[in-house]
Protein 1
Amino acid sequence: MRSYRILLPYLRQGLLPLSVGIVFLLSVDFLQLSIPRFIKGAIDTLTAKPGAAQGLFKYVLLILGAASLVFLFRMFWRRLIFGQGRRIEEALRNRLFQHLLRLSQSYYHRTSIGDLMAHATNDMEAVRMALGMGLVSMMDSLVLGSAAIAFMAYINLKLTLISLWPMPLAAFLTHRLSRLLHQRFEMVQGTFSQIMEKVRESLVGIMVVKAYTLQKREEENLSRFSLKYQDQNIALARVTSTLFPLSVFLTSLSLAVVLWIGGKQVIDREITAGDFVAFISYLGLLSWPFSALGWGINLIKRGAVSLERIERILEERPEIADLPGLTAPRLDPLDLQVKELTFAYSEKEKPVLKGVSLEIKSGGSCIITGKTGSGKTTLALLLVRLLEPAYGTISLNGHDIHSIPLADLRQSISLIPQEPFLFSDTIRANLLLARPEAGEVEMEEALRAAAFYDEIQTFPQGLDTVVGEKGVLLSGGQKQRLSLARALLVNPSVLILDNTLSSVDLSTERSIQENLGHFREGRTTIFISHRLVGWEGVDTIFFLEAGKLLEWGSHEQLIRKDGPYARLYRYQRLELELRQGAF
């Protein structure tokens, strides 16, 4: 139950409506307890003075008044307590989402999205039910049950002790069942996470599923998880379905004993008929506290399991975060220095980068190139602190990258990945994502620089065309150019294009290169590509191989060296000429 401590700030914020709701709830309980007293008075009046209708009318009015107040107060407490449960659910979901946005990339590499979706849906619902119906059931069972027992004891202590004989047995069985409930509900939630991830994976990869006719396999896989989820839910239902019938059964046993012994007491005139009827009424009221106790324990336990799962996420700390008290230095213009940079994705793996040192002056253009797997993308991720280096330093204008706030760093250095992500919205919305205040002229300039403006004019709705899920209505090259235009609209001090033009043809690529030369004059542009032909005009070429920087310089300098770059360049040049028939 310690997991509920994370809710304390929200409970304190909503203390007033929650307290008023509890007052109304307790008022309903005590009004319900008063009704058997009114019935006792009516019956005693009838037995003492048969035909005394005048005396009965008073009790009829009292019962109607109590029932009316029960209706009103119950409506108020449901709105206040359940409403507060909804507000806490909303606040906790927002907190979870905000926390997820701050976590490092490595967390998402080891955690499935389906699992996170399950936390944001099923687990949140379990918490809300615990704060709503669970809280009400527990409080109702304790207050109403205790008060009903007190009234029963006031009427006849001996009969009360006899009627309560099943309570120790009920408490023991409830305790044992609640432990089993906790274990089985945790298993259910874990399997639900697996189902969410399986469905998400199948739908995201729907093109591969269809291309290889894997529908049957995916159906069987999901069916296996669903059957497991069904079996676990049935096992859980065996526990939860025992709690309520158990309480009803034990209450019925008590009622049978009370009817037998209490009936004799009425006959022997040890208690009045009114007392006996009131006692039976109070015993009837106990059936709800007994069953509510089991139901409340069920909901509270479920909420505790879900809170434990949520808390495990909230306890995660981002591996990459700002140091306290950072202030942003001037980063425009921006010189970039890398010294002895070494990086491995885990301690067990070989380093992807090995002692890389390079310097990029402000205002120029360069390309980081090399064969596939040489560490080009890893270097780009390190420059924007999406990864942390094991050894070595990265400096901007002489300032260590760790001394610069992340927000300022990523505003100064923008990375466009090879596989751009587009939201299921319009072209305009995706373009204005990082700079919503940009005007039409600025958008047109950015789109023209990315060689995408003319194509957009052919779309039926132009900039207001909805691109669909992940930009599904656009080709690979169009998505890359829209992503490039989005970055150009911000126009940072340093722009890194990680194979951003890999899906466009050579003619369009060269046109974009020329456009970028004019658009980004005075700012630094870093290209990452394994394709060497077409990049001869950049200021500096950095050639990586197996994680090491083998050589650097201008195209002419590297060709004269006749090293690894020159050999790979001649090979790619010949391959292109053969493909184009220019030999």
Note: The mean pLDDT is 84.
Protein 2
Amino acid sequence: MMGETRKTLGRNVVEIGCVLAVVLTFSIVPVLWAGDPPAPSFAELLSHGEFSLARQRIEQAPADQRDALRWQLLQAQLAGGAASGAARTLGEYGGRFPSAGFGPVGAASAGRGGAVIADFQTLMDLIREVIDPDSWEETGDGTGRMFPFPLGVHINGKGKLRLRQPPPVSLERLGERRHSALADSGNRNVRRRSPFRKVSLTRLERHLALRVAQGLPPTPAMLHMAGLHRITHLFFYPETGDVVIAGPADGWRLSEDGRHVSVTTGEPTLWLDDWIEVWRNAWASSEGFYCSIEPRPANLRRAADWLKRARKDGIDGDRRQWAERLQQVLGEQDLVVQGIDARSRLASVIFEADYHMKRIGVGLEESVFGVPSYVELLASSKTTSANQVLRWWFTLADKPVHVSADNLAFQLPDQPVQLQSENPLIDAAGKPQSVGRRDPHNVQFAANFTRYLDRLAKRYPVYADLRNVMQWALVAAICHEEIMAERIDWNGDFFLDAQRCPIRRGPEPKTVQTVVLHRRFPNGRIITAVSGGVQVNGRQWRQAHDFRPDPYGELAGRYRDAERREKVPPEQWWWD
């Protein structure tokens, strides 16, 4: 019985084994017939975090499809937290930024209010609470104040602008310059002094977009344009898609008047926000941008009536009291800005420069050697003009821009700022009317101011800040023209997008105290109110000026020499 059982079990085991063998055989046969497993799709590589394999797949794709794939890879790297890989991908990306931005990551950062705007308020509140709370204007009876804008002006809660008082204190071969700009010295310390640093605006745009997508503000190096404190050259590289500005650079520090300046020269650094604002204006308007300090017609009429009564009644008295009374009658002037955001740093810079210049003109601020005030010029004259309105305003200077034969390298003027002047008439409604009239003293003051602007800028850095604004306007005008002529495949889409790329904003300046000149001379009394502003129209300037060719004509040979130099890695947006 036991033997029979064993035989039966043995037979069953064999039968089961046969069944299993048959099952296994039929389960293997389909696999053997199917061939090799299919390669994962590009989307599957991204979803599984296989970014290296995805990068290899991109290199194998047709050239016209690579940027679209790089954009997908960039999105996935950002979502996966692969920041270094995303930076490399962004450096290789050559297309324009889609209007949808960076997808979910970009949307998340936008929900926090925009990553480009730094939150100074929390830090300032903390400082006021911890450090001598009674010494601050906002929290006590003191005079201490903090402000996020790096400027020499103060704008109170009502929008009134006033100056902050600081304590006393040969043409190059353009072709060679352009191609040597591709050489990378290997320096990665942005605060190291450099006589000729290069910043790629196209690469900077991509890296800024990457930080915004990660919910991060721009780095200090980005805000200060890698320490550049003036622009001497502009280069175009169609082969790499780079638009490059170049000039001297240095580390930076905060000066006594709240301005970020070079640690070596004391010149203000270039500002990213200024470039963004100028760039948007270049695309939005052919009229440029301007600020203006305008007297109020009603106040001018009231001042004229008061002067008539004073002369009729023989009211004279102390000169200082008389001038103060006149200034009260004239009251405040209105600040007008068009073409740019009135709350931007750029607007504050040009307002400050304009107002400070007027104070120098009437002798309220110390000038420099070679620039006597309008008052001093009048004092040395045999004749004076009674009771008038002066108008002084800054524009782009009538100076040449030199260009290489291939229109790919430009040298900007060192000082592109010019002061203009006129003596407008006041109509019956109290409004100044331009009649093209200028008295000799007015002409001389404007000419001296323009000639010695560099000297003035060393003493008052606001004029170097204004120079930087004017150079940005020239860069934007040249770039806009080259883009419209389809010689450059770039238009700074991300810079143009105010929602994805916001700039920092401060209080809007609205009014300023009237600048009044009142002096008694042996040949009469002078009463003068001053108006004016800053007018910047790079596109109009470009239409009125022909570029001068590079006088050396050695670009071809220099080009061949430069081709052997080390190329800049795509992930680097500035280099020496």
Note: Residues 2-34 form the longest helix (33 residues).
Protein 3
Amino acid sequence: MPYRKSTALVRLAGFFLAIFMSAACGSVGAAVGKHAAASNVAAGERIYRQGIGTDGKPVQAFSQTDVPLSGEQAACVTCHRPSGLGSSEGGYYVPPISGPLLFSPRKLDRLRLFPQFFHQVQPKSFDTRLHQPHMRPGYTVGSLATTLSEGVDAAGQKLATIMPRYRMTDADVKALAAYLHTLSARIDPGVDDHQIKLAAVFSDQVPAADRDAMLGTLQAYVKWRNLHLHEDQSRKGFSPYSRSEFVPIERSWSLSVWTLKGDASTWRAQLDAYYRANPVFALVGGKVDGSWNGPSQFCDEHRIPCLFPDTDLPAWPPSHAGYTVYFSAGLALEAQVSASFIASHEAGNHAQVVQIAAADSYGQLPARIFQQTLHEREPRRQQSLITYHDRAELDAALKADAGHPDRLLVVWPGADVTTAVDALAALQPRASLVFLPSRAIDAARKAATTELAARLRFADPYELAPSSHVKSFETRAWLHTRHLVIDHPLLQFKEYYAMSMLDAALFEISNDFYRDYLIERIEDESQKDMNPGIYPRLALGPGERYAAKGANIVRFAPGKPSGLTPVGNWIAP
């Protein structure tokens, strides 16, 4: 009996052990399967975005039957865009290849095709292609391989020769298919059936008057836009086959205000906390006191569009195809323009350049970029850089190093512009020319003597005569009818532009609420004349993140409406 009893216990223990091992092996197998699937998707994303095959080598392809392409040149993202929802240019319609559309039978979707009819003047063959799209069944991995290698679609119809013919392995095709299944497959956070959630970011050090002017414009736009949507929704069928067709898929907007407090090193954690509590579809407008590096990193990590914040210090070095879209590169652009002007300015060909820069990021970043740009243009030019921490050090630098009339002086004030301008006005450095950033114009206008003002030069990316733009009248009228006092026109015009650009882009994306697609539509919409006169030129190309790409060097001119006049030509470094 004792033996038989122990044998039963052993068998029972073995039974439970077998069950445990089976479950454990199943869990391990599932984990391995998930890891393999994730690895395959990641490999497919490299093919799609970088043109790098599963073997780590550049993908090879031919376009127009004989034009060789390799690596990034052959990457799908070049034409089909990060969203996978396609594009149109130069008479060619590039169809969407995101998972839900590629692996399903093609349907004639009027709303999705609608924007393509009006973006550019296209040849008749383009319109015919849109009106009579080739129907096909959903793709499989096998038919996708045939399309990539032979240029025929899932129905056996020949594709345009601009579509590359690829040399891909079976592993490449399977990985690419795995990634395409995930591409624009789920609506991004911040959107539900009724609402699109937005947020504006401000730091608590932004002057209250600036914040109120900007936030008032943002909130007024949301209210105005939602009112129009409510009116459209209450009049069903008011405009057959036109705008009313879009009304059922439009959403109202909500705008949250994310206020960043304390030191900039804590901003990232604060942004993460705001987002966890209230996921938004996009950030729009806003302003912080200091660098936009923290918000930019936050947006890139979460893939959240951040549209036209007001900042002198965008994230640097610039991120190609990042998720923050800026008006300009701020002080970095002004540093490049000032250096380019000095390198080509006849009167300054022999002069030593002295930079005096504040110790903070407002001084050090542009000083470093200026020094690098001037060295690239004129390697033999003598340069020196002096950093100051307070007014006493600034005064000492101005007395000792900028007192020679054959020198060019470049001053990069810190966050406190007034201190630098007051020091210049008090000490009257004898340098032949004194260069300052655009953020110092107002302070210099008030403090500089006539003699000093004649030698001051500013790198200014803004429009000198904004009232000459037709859109500026429209913008002022809009602000007035919203009962907004135009006491900070530059800031208010910027916010109006950001919101109107967002409005136009959201209308164009139809029901495809994907963040990458929103940025792509903004790139396209920026080609239209929506600039209310804040910058001479505003436009974005695919992957570009600075809409204003140049600046003038200006001097004071009391007889001009703006009190400024250009010196030389527009400079786009």
Note: Residues 1-32 have pLDDT under 50 and may be disordered.
Protein 4
Amino acid sequence: MSKIKSDIEIARASNINPIEDVLKKFNIPNDPHSYSPMGRHIAKLNLEYIDKLKDKKSNLILVTAITPTPAGEGKTTTSVGLNDGLNKIGKKSIVCLREPSLGPSFGMKGGAAGGGYAQVIPMEQINLHFTGDFHAITSAHNLLSALIDNHVYWGNKLNIDPNNIIWKRVVDLNDRSLRKIKINLEKLRANIARDESFEITVASEIMAIFCLSNNIKDLEEKIGNITIAYTKENKPIYAKDIKAHGPMTVLLKDAIRPNAVQTLENNLAIIHGGPFANIAHGCNSILATKTALKLSEYVITEAGFGADLGAEKFLDIKCRKAGLKPSCVVLVATIRALKMHGGVEKDDLKKENLDALKKGIPNLERHIHNIKKFGLEVIVAINHFITDTDKEVKIIQEQCTKLGIKVSLCTHWSDGGNGAKDLANSVVKLCEKSDASKFKYLYSDQIPILEKVEKIAKEIYSAKGIEVNDEIKKQVKKIEQAGFGKFPVCIAKTQYSFSTDPKLKGAPSGHILSLREVRLSSGAEFVVVVCGSIMTMPGLPRNPAAENIKLNNKGEIEGLF
């Protein structure tokens, strides 16, 4: 039996085209007014060119997944495979993805460029520094931190309370040692030592603003509206009050331009922005999605983690902010992951286990029912593994048939676009009968913040209710009295369960969603609700992926996956 090639080996052996050839398929002129090459295989699209493109009737397809497990689901792989499949059947399609973070690339998850024969390339650059967008976001974020502390140092004209500076610092790595630190410890002209903390860059409000901005002016305005601190009289201080929004926007002027790359089958992919879905809103930039919609018939986009997090936030936050209406949703599942939800340990997943699969299927059913609450049609994509048996596949097909849901068995990991042609044809049929007027948000802007949280808890997580202490109520009241009560909510919780307990697999119900903290993102225009023990600065696992990443004797990267 021949050795199965690793993702990086497949990517390195692929026939990668010059980026101008890929862009030419979508009639993007090869001139400096349209895009700027970043080497031979990556380009940054110019905002002036994007602005001149006319809106057209195009179909937006959201790819989401069941609740993630260590067995893997393959959402990005399926997104890329579906895009290649649509192009295989003669449709003009573009896939829009998030940029990978260095945190998981060197941590536990690995990269986020797809896998097998359904990848975006150049894989090494995309998974590492790419075009430097994350570095620009990190720099802009920490520039604001430096300007805040500098303002306090030079006399504190705005009367900022040093103990009520709420803007934290960020770094694009998993570094638990930075969760709580002390700064200003050297003897300065004033006693301004204080507690500080770091979050990972993908949790930054700058990242959220970056992905929810329609243009550079919108970006600057939103940055200016960031709440950074409060005075001793409890008056909010905004980034624009210390004139930070101008220089921060300058640092982001190139990063805000969408990045164009290609799939292994030389189809166009736009990769831009990358908030996590468990601690942020989990979608690529509005700019990337709207650009793709202007250029193609079909746009495939993914939302992070399971549908209870990524899809809900995509629909209730991104679509609300951008005025987007998806044509349909693809729900990715693996038989391996469903067996884990049915109680099987990871080491035993290769064995056929019909009972465990039946016990795990309620997780899939819950996500299907949840998506339908938004008025959207859904198709289940089984991301096929060679250990899957015909009996196991049949169980999922029969169960979905009872629910009136089409199932497509996909082999894009091993067969590329050919392995997703059935899914592509099914998606086309769903889009043809799609009725955009049926799409609806889960909750209204007008209802109070805690009612929005309770609506998500009960309708999406099947919780019995929410638990709110007096301090949380006080925080929420303060936000609503300041005029931000109409903002959508972004719930930060574990991705591994419908509940806040990551060990509670399957489709738990009747639990309580306990609110730990509420944060106002006045620039990004949503309210972050932190639940359970979720960390906005992850740590590295005992054996991080970084231990296996190195350069070989040829100067090539090894160990990246």
Note: The first helix runs from residue 7 to 13.
